[in-house]
Amino acid sequence: MVLSFGYVGLFALIFAESGLLFGFFLPGDSVLFSVGLLASQGKFDIYTLVPLIVIAAILGDSVGYWFGAKVGPKLFEKDDSRLFKKKYLEDTQKYYEKYGPMTIIIARFLPAVRTFAPILAGVAKMNYSTFLRYNIIGGIIWGAGVTLLGYFLGNVVPGIDKYIYPIIALIIIISILPVAIQWWRSR
């Protein structure tokens, strides 16, 4: 299925997952690993693939940031409602002042959080140059790192393509695990 996307489809998928509100359900980690594995089998060119994915991730997060910066504060201009309270905006701003840079990097590895972190950084008015710096670092570590891991394992482990579905399942479990543990603890 990933092969049918091609380079343009992969760019769009990573871009959407990284910064568009509806992209939170997309399977970024498993796709990156899969295309890296496919590149090791000659289905994609790794030298095209890695920069394409990194650029898509960085641009997606930047669009998410600007969306949050433009739309977010307007949601809080009106009187408090059930979902939007001025206190939430203040809390988000304090959080991003203290933890923003690391949040932008770590969020890359957490499904759904990856989509909302840049938007909330924009809502919180995180300094854009700081955001961009950590967006680039996170985009490189996540986009290149997970893709190259798939590529490396595809070159080192003979017949790994036979185990692609269990590997993808494991990646999904590993990427969801931190969120599940935090949810369990908060109960």
Q: Could you tell me the mean pLDDT?
A: 81
Shape: elongated
Question: Span between N and C termini?
Answer: 38 Å
- How many domains? The number is 1
Strand percentage: under 5%
Helices and strands: which structural class? Answer: mainly alpha
What is the radius of gyration computed over CA atoms, rounded to a whole number of angstroms? 18 Å
What is the chain-wise order of helices and strands?
A: HHHHHHH
What does this structure look like?
There is one protein chain. With 187 residues, the chain is mainly α. The protein has one domain. 78% of the residues lie in helices and 0% in strands. The protein has 7 helices and no strands. The protein is elongated.
Blueprint of the fold:
Elements (H helix, E strand, L loop, with lengths): L1 H18 L8 H13 L5 H30 L10 H21 L6 H11 L4 H29 L7 H23 L1
Helix pairs in contact: 1-2, 1-3, 1-5, 2-6, 2-7, 3-5, 3-6, 4-5, 4-6
